[in-house]
Amino acid sequence: MLRARERPERRRRGDLAVAAFLVLLVVAVAVGYGLSSPAANTESVPATSPGVQPAPAPDVPPAALVEAWRAPSAAAPVPVVSGPGVVTAAGGTVVGRDATTGAERWTYTRDRELCTVTEGFGQVLALYPSADGTWCSELTALASDLGTRGPASNLDVRPGARLAASGSTAVASSADYLEAMRSDLVTTLQYGAVVAPAQPDRQPRPGCTYTSLAVAAGRLGVIEDCPADAADRLTVLRPDGTGDADTPKVEFSVPLATRGTQLLAVSADRAAVLLPGPPELQILDREGDQVGLIGLDVPESEVAPPADRVGATAGDSDRVYWWSGSRTVALDRSGLAPVWTLRDTLGAGVEYGGSWLLPTRAGLAVVDPVRGAVLRTIPVDRGGFAGPVVLAADGQMLYEQRGDELVALRPA
């Protein structure tokens, strides 16, 4: 028996109007997001082929160096060397360059000026401000070789932010807030003035400011200036990503003897804090107990914490090198005890050709890293520039960050 065909559902005129409105709403939201999203006003021009690694470093530092190229890089406080190339950053543009010639290989440009740039996880981390300039919030990872975009994240740090990375952790900092991330830029730790906490009262000391920090060996140390404390406080955190990000894992937090201190370094088992008047290095163990107090040959005027919270340090497998402002102090990496001090330097230096190179007014001092003895000096003409010099190396190439400019040197 044949069934009568069912009549189709009738659509009322009002239903059609609602459907049309919903379609227009979806289109409007998509257009609005497209205009306001980070990708809307971004120009990304990746490299078309892999970069070329520079020639290997010589067995010993050369007798002479010549300038290979230079480029503006005001947004990068330190040389950004990663993979077979080097990166410069100024205005709103990050440029991937050939390490040897400085030729542009890729660019990434936004319609706003960069907050800061650094290297982390073998990538370039570029931090841009929010559209209204209130935050340094839009972080993008770029492949160091080709410049292609990787993970992105929205942070809650204020202008004046600084990025620091070590091993499996990168940290974005501002005066009252720290945010740690892993390599995919997922947040593993929020500390301080969390903007929209999932639950209240998870931060141990709200209202503090952060004057100095160091990250290494899966530990994040920070000097806190808290209104309720009579002196500075050292807090060591574990940014390992276990648990909720806005519930900090505090390894220890102890008051220090005075204010105006600076955290120089952390290791797997120690933390080294510079105390003022007269300058002394206080070494603390994993429980926050003092295990050493050693005088340092550093002017008292150079004890104050850095304006951007991150000290001028560099390192090799055995030592951490800290620059005070006029001299370089080498610390044993495991115990953080001072090993030697050299005066009249312009930076923390870099490992190159089996020696440690330290910038001086005359050029680059070739230093025995074990004894701190100056073996000789490679002349470098900086054209009257006498400010701090931050060094990096890639194969035979040396890079000097001189203020807002990056200068590349090669063996003559």
From TrEMBL:
It comes from the Bacteria. InterPro entries: Quinoprotein_ADH-like_sf. This is Pyrroloquinoline-quinone binding quinoprotein.
